[in-house]
Specification:
By secondary structure, the chain is an alpha/beta fold. It has two domains: 200 residues, P-loop containing nucleotide triphosphate hydrolases (Rossmann fold), CATH 3.40.50.300; 125 residues. Helices cover 50% and strands 8% of the residues. The chain contains 15 helices and seven strands. The strands form two sheets. Strands 2-5-6-1-7 form a five-stranded parallel beta sheet, sandwiched between helices. The chain has a two-stranded antiparallel sheet with strand order 3-4. Helix 5 links the parallel strand 5 and strand 6. Helix 10 packs parallel to helix 13. The longest helix is centred in the C-terminal third of the chain and has 24 residues.
């Protein structure tokens, strides 16, 4: 398998790679923070780019890399003086750096990510120290041109202990003219010393408007989907929105809400049909989505009682009506929250030890019936 055919851990199925994404939506504050540091000569050598999955962290990393590599270190323009400071991170797509990044041939960039295992024919589960050691050659070869060097670590959460310690040494003693961009979905799991040596750029979930614009820019058709429902159930994540669209997740969530509407008695035939729809060989993705949406439904249900109103943005009038009936008070919200925690733990454990999917889900649905506040 050639390098161009290898699966990429930082590419979402059905969407462009972050290096190919021309626009970043909904993250103006993070971009402005980086640009302010750059223009004030306070460019930190290590940046921790955090936020939920799928909100544009990798896209921002590639935008920053493109900007840094295309912006000369020496801004003196001879007879006419220094050019005005940049007002955004945009780089002309015809710029040589932009072309080299798309082609994967930019000598000033190193993308550190989970490698492909030729023997197992799949991506490795972790970024190993052997991958980090490749940076030694990168720094040696890229030092000759005297320009900037950028390292993107995506995702830093994937590093094993030895790889994390090797990156920490680079952060403690960074090579000259080098910027490290660490993408992290769960920064609390990183070494505290890594976090303390980076400046954080926090990205927020996307609004329904920004999510729709991002999907359109990526060439993903979401015209038939309710943008509010898509934003609510995806948590403002492009990646999660794509999964919902590809796997009919909005229709599945409606089915879960219909099941909830039969509580406290619970329609056993409906519960059995929903459980069986995610059971069996080849339905692992469906099962994962059911578990995700069930967890999201319980969280939104508990939030209804805690806030005294249906959660925003709404997914449907049926959801609001059902959740207000089932969770009309903070007392009910506490019970639902406890049930969500216990059932969530049970489902995750059952999934980990390969409990039969149909039985696992049906057991959980019956627990909702038994624990439903009355």
């Amino acid at each position: 398998m050639s390098d161009t055919q290898l699966p990429e851990p930082d590419r979402l199925d059905g969407a462009p790679h972050p290096r190919e994404t021309a626009q970043l939506f909904g993250q103006d504050a993070a971009q402005a923070d980086f640009l302010q540091a750059f223009t004030s000569d306070r460019l930190h050598h290590g940046w921790l780019i955090t936020g939920p999955r799928g909100v544009g962290k990798a896209t921002l990393s590639w935008r920053i890399a493109r900007f840094l590599l295309a912006t000369p270190l020496d801004q003196d323009d001879g007879l006419f003086g220094a050019p005005p400071p940049p007002t955004d991170l945009e780089i002309d797509p015809e710029h040589p750096v932009a072309h080299r990044l798309l082609a994967g041939s930019e000598p000033g960039l190193f993308a550190l990510k989970r490698p492909y295992d030729d023997k197992a024919k799949r991506l490795k589960a972790q970024i190993t120290v052997d991958e980090v050691r490749k940076l030694k050659n990168f720094f040696a070869l890229s030092a000759t041109d005297g320009g900037r060097r950028v390292v993107i670590v995506d995702a830093a959460d994937d590093m094993n202990v030895n790889a994390a310690n090797a990156i920490l040494k680079l952060l403690e003693e960074p090579p000259a003219r080098t910027t490290l961009l660490l993408v992290s979905h769960q920064p609390s799991r990183l070494l505290p010393t890594i976090r303390s040596r980076c400046r954080e750029l926090r990205l927020d979930p996307l609004s329904s408007e920004d999510l729709s614009r991002a999907l359109q820019a990526a060439g993903i058709d979401a015209s038939d989907a309710d943008p509010n429902a898509l934003a609510a159930l995806s948590g403002g994540s492009i990646g999660e929105a794509v999964r919902l669209l590809q796997q009919d997740g909005l229709e599945l969530y409606e089915d879960i809400v219909k099941l909830f509407s039969t509580l406290p008695d619970l329609s056993r035939p409906h519960a059995i049909a929903l459980a069986e729809s995610a059971a069996g060989r080849g339905k692992e993705n469906r099962l994962d989505l059911v578990l995700t949406l069930l967890d999201r439904a319980l969280a939104r249900l508990a939030r209804t009682g805690a806030m005294g109103a249906a959660p925003e943005p709404p997914t449907s009038p049926a959801e609001a009506e059902t959740f207000l009936r089932l969770c009309p008070s903070q007392h009910a919200a506490q019970k639902w929250a406890h049930l969500a925690q216990t059932e969530g733990d049970k489902l995750r454990h059952g999934r980990a030890v390969n409990v039969e999917a149909g039985s696992l889900l049906l057991s959980s649905f019956l627990a909702l019936r038994d624990g439903c506040p009355r």
